[in-house]
Amino acid sequence: MQSSRRNEMCTKCGIDSEKLYNCSRCKSAVTRYCGRKCQEEHWPAHKPICTPLKQDEVWGIKIPPNASGRLLGIGGSRGENDPGRLFEHVLIKADHHVFSMRGELCPVTQLVGLPLLVYSEAFATGVGLDANNQATVYLRIEPENGLAPLHWQMNGPGTCIVVRQDRRPLTRQAIEAMWQFTAKLIDGFGYARDSDCGWAPVQSVMTPASWQIFSRDYYQQQREKGRVGFDKFWEPL
Ligand SMILES: [Zn+2]
Ligand SMILES: [Zn+2]
């Protein structure tokens, strides 16, 4: 482990410490630990992204087609209910289309302070347009009506790539929480009137404060279920 002098929080336990250590293998600038114990306990979550990044690489998320959104439910530990299968870590080149005009900014994520860009290979190439990707459609909703733009509804976007606009690593845990947040917003728009989400008017909760409360609670709920990677909220997401 290498010493870091920045006064930030341990990725695992959240302790605020002047002396934190980077992972010596990947030297990630955003994963830091207060000591060996926290590093070891965090390893199952960190392992998938423990790779020394090249200058032109960014950690993003791949969402395979037929990711059928909240209908799958969350919290299961195997098979289709495993959100780990819904969101895959992938290394993205800095000149990937997602960062160009072909990447679309998800407006709700921008409103809440975690701007995400999404890219559909099928929309870009016209190949594979039939495959549904409901999880990505949720992320892409417009704040005015809770619906994705027409081209997202008319054609299945197939496999999608999602990255943080600020090019910091996007983790599975963060995108899962954001997806659940958008699912709750969609409930709030009244498309599922039976399940009152208790949020009205919906636009008033599209704020960084609401997102932070939601995601902090969500991380805590997942921790209580014993899921790895939800150790601490916010930095790094
Ligand atoms: Zn710690
Ligand atoms: Zn590492």
Describe this protein's structure.
InterPro entries: Znf_MYND. Keywords: Metal-binding, Zinc, Zinc-finger. With 237 residues, the chain is an alpha+beta fold. The protein has eight helices and ten strands. The protein has a five-stranded antiparallel sheet. It binds zinc ion (2 copies). One zinc ion is lined by residues 23, 25-26, 28, 46, 50.
CA radius of gyration is 18 Å
Give the topology string: H per helix, E per strand: EEEEEHEHEEHEHHHEHH
- Side by side, the strands of the main sheet go 7-6-10-9-8
Count of DSSP H/I helices:
8
Low-confidence stretches: 2-6, 69-81
Q: In total, how many beta strands?
A: 10
What ligand species are in this complex?
Answer: zinc ion
List the SSEs and their pairings.
Blueprint: E1 2-4, E2 8-9, E3 16-17, E4 20-22, E5 32-33, H1 36-46, E6 57-63, H2 83-86, E7 88-93, E8 104-105, H3 107-111, E9 116-120, H4 121-125, H5 134-139, H6 150-154, E10 160-164, H7 172-191, H8 208-224
Antiparallel strand pairs: 1-4, 2-3, 4-5, 6-7, 6-10, 8-9, 9-10
The site of one zinc ion has 7 residues, from loops.
